[in-house]
Amino acid sequence: MKALSLKQPFAELILQGKKKIELRKWNTGFRGEFLIHASKIPNEKAMKEFGFDKLPCGFIVGKANLVSVKKYKNEEEHRKDKDKHLASSLWGDYGFILENAERISPIPARGSLGFWDFNLKK
Asked: For the chain, how many structural domains are there in total?
């Protein structure tokens, strides 16, 4: 199954349904269900900003569906979706539109860049 690594607290915010768009600097043709991997090293500034002390890192923590990709053409478009991606335009101009995020029991895993393959039957 495909997986995508995200730093904490962004993986957690997706699982809580607060983050509906994942910003990236690259586009993808991939659509469908994928696993959410919480990277080993969290974003400490964002952890404080969103009020988290400790979250699981280095684990597959959930899954979601990537249903569409939105290309942001300017700063104004970014601002309109701020409540869905919770980030600045510095994170990227491509918004991965996510649905049906669901938490799963954490599974230890090493992450990778981009979408990568993970065998759930390990």
From this structure: 1
